[in-house]
Design brief:
Radius of gyration: 16 Å
Distance between the termini: 26 Å
Mean pLDDT: 85
Length: about 100
């Protein structure tokens, strides 16, 4: 993942950098995933703002949380999705993928 976009505010840059560190360490994303990653960052920021609102709109929080959870899974940021990523990185899976795409 690239660094946070130029002009990002402090909160956006912090969330981007925090998520980027984990996603990069997992090797779970490519340059073509930047638009989806950008959406994940935006949704995470919206979720933080929704939790901070007085009064909290529980319905809104639940809807945003569901979208954040789905995108986190796409990037290997949930326990179950990391298990699937680990399975794809075994020599057997790598070899099977190579046969499939070559």
């Amino acid at each position: 993942m690239p660094d946070p976009p130029d002009g990002s505010d402090d909160d956006s840059s912090r969330v981007w950098s925090d998520l980027k560190t984990v996603v990069d360490a997992l090797g779970a994303a490519a340059q073509s995933d930047v638009p989806a990653f950008r959406n994940l960052v935006r949704l995470q920021l919206l979720l933080t703002q929704a939790y901070a609102a007085i009064p909290v709109d529980a319905d809104l929080v639940l809807r945003i949380q569901a979208r954040v959870d789905r995108l986190m899974a796409e990037f290997g940021l949930t326990p179950a999705s990391r298990t699937r990523l680990a399975a794809l990185k075994t020599p057997e899976a790598t070899s099977a993928l190579a046969r499939l795409f070559n």
